[in-house]
Automatic annotation (TrEMBL):
Keywords: Glycoprotein, Glycosyltransferase, Membrane, Transferase, Transmembrane, Transmembrane helix. GO terms for cellular component: membrane. It comes from the Eukaryota. The keyword Transmembrane helix applies. This is Core-2/I-branching beta-1. It comes from Perilla frutescens var. hirtella. The chain crosses the membrane at residues 7-35.
Length: 404
């Protein structure tokens, strides 16, 4: 083919594929619920998993209507070719937004080559305080397990979050810990939550009505359960693959029983994984009591933590957390994190040891890559490593890690 014909061919096949994706999306006939990009370039480096290799992570990043730019920025900030990513704009967002997000994602050369980012095409509702949230998280975990057999940990993020370390830092520090550990902030000391969160019976209409967006409360309350202990904590988690298999495949009935019970509880994402893990003998000893996030509560606390700004930068960086929340869209403090920690330029992925291109003001070093199985920790890895060591030491010293 001549150069011109080849160009036309590429253009037409590109347009045709886009059209097919769009068609299957509109008709809802597609059996797959996500867009996948088959790699169209040969891998210059294969991805190795298992002992002796750095771990890899499956990220579920969720947002709402209007969040496509934030999701894209966060994706680039936490991107690494060895990881897997699933992006979700909840049902309140439009199909145009999802298609737009897909088109942003697909123009990143490394993502095109590694094909490790998907956008959910058939979204789930996101009822405020409702149980559809936990359904969406479990679905994401199941999808990520189906599309990628290699990852070790599952990380939940929202469009309002941002990393405080690079993926090389994360993989380096997590290389030295057991891969069956789960990071779940939890307590069985429920306090006021017992009467206000667990005992009230609520219904999430997002489960069965297309347009309802608020939970409603039944007049009755129910007694506290006595066949299991309720644990609560931060909704943000880092979970091992083995624990998620336990939750999703359900060979033991506990995860399913608790899912049915928590369907009618306020903010089920603050109780579900916590209660499942702490009531299962084979997993409770893998619980590290932390969520690895940095956030600050206003005084008095509101439903969501304080919106972080440049005044919070120093404390945030000293915290040794992996992620922070929450941020405003395009906040100046995010640019500070990009510049000082991630060394990331606008609209480009965070560089790592895998980037082999020459860095200059017009060149993205990450359009060429070498061995993606090598990681090189940066300065923030030290602080993060210290906080993980402390958590793991603490975990080691306890006989019952789920004790209150
Ligand atoms: C937790 O306990 C189970 C069985 O009781 C055991 O197989 C597993 O290795 C333990 N895990 C840790 C992290 O100690
Ligand atoms: C950051 O937020 C705090 C609390 O809302 C506020 O007092 C402070 O002035 C803000 N700092 C900047 C630089 O905007």
């Amino acid at each position: 083919m001549g150069a011109e014909k080849k160009w036309l061919y590429t253009l037409f096949s590109g347009a045709f594929i886009t059209f097919l994706i769009f068609l299957s999306f509109i008709s809802g006939l597609s059996s797959s619920y996500y867009y996948a990009y088959p790699p169209n370039k040969p891998f210059p480096s294969t991805i190795d998993h298992g002992p002796g290799r750095p771990p890899s992570f499956a990220y579920y990043i969720s947002g709402q209507s209007g969040d496509s730019d934030r999701l894209f920025r966060l994706l680039l900030a936490v991107y690494h070719p060895r990881n897997r990513y699933l992006l979700h704009i909840s049902a309140d967002g439009s199909d145009e937004e999802r298609v737009r997000l897909v088109s942003m994602v697909k123009y990143v050369p490394v993502i095109q080559a590694f094909g490790n980012v998907d956008v959910i095409g058939k979204p789930d509702p996101n009822t405020y305080m409702g149980s559809t949230n936990i359904a969406a998280i479990l679905r994401a975990a199941a999808t990520l397990m189906k599309v990628d057999g290699g990852w070790d940990w599952f990380v939940t993020l929202s469009a309002k979050d941002y990393p405080l370390i690079t993926q090389d830092d994360l993989a380096h520090v997590f290389s030295s810990i057991r891969r069956d550990l789960n990071f779940i902030d939890h307590t069985s000391d429920l306090g006021w939550k017992e009467g206000q969160r667990i005992q009230p019976i609520v219904v999430d209409p997002g489960i069965y009505l297309a347009r309802r967006t608020q939970i409603f409360h039944a007049t009755e309350k129910r007694a506290m359960p006595d066949s299991f202990t309720v644990f609560t904590g931060s909704p943000w988690v880092v979970l091992s693959r083995s624990f998620l298999e336990f939750c999703v495949f359900g060979w033991d009935n506990l995860p399913r029983t608790l899912l049915m019970y928590f369907t009618n509880v306020v903010l089920s994402q603050e109780v579900y994984f916590h209660t499942v893990i702490c009531n299962s003998p084979e997993f409770k000893n893998t619980t590290v009591n932390a969520d690895l996030r940095y956030f600050v509560w206003d005084d008095p606390p509101k439903m969501e933590p304080h919106v972080l700004n440049t005044s919070d930068y120093e404390e945030m960086v000293k915290s040794g957390a992996a992620f922070a929340r929450q941020f405003d869209k395009d906040a100046t403090v995010l640019d500070m994190i990009d510049r000082k920690i991630l060394k990331r330029d606008r609209n480009l992925a965070t560089p790592g040891a895998w980037c082999r291109g020459r860095k200059s003001w017009w060149m993205d070093p990450c359009t060429q890559w070498g061995d993606v199985n090598a990681v090189k920790p940066g300065p923030q890895a030290k602080k993060f490593g210290e906080s993980i060591d402390k958590l793991v030491d603490n975990w080691n010293s306890k006989s019952d890690t789920c004790a209150r």
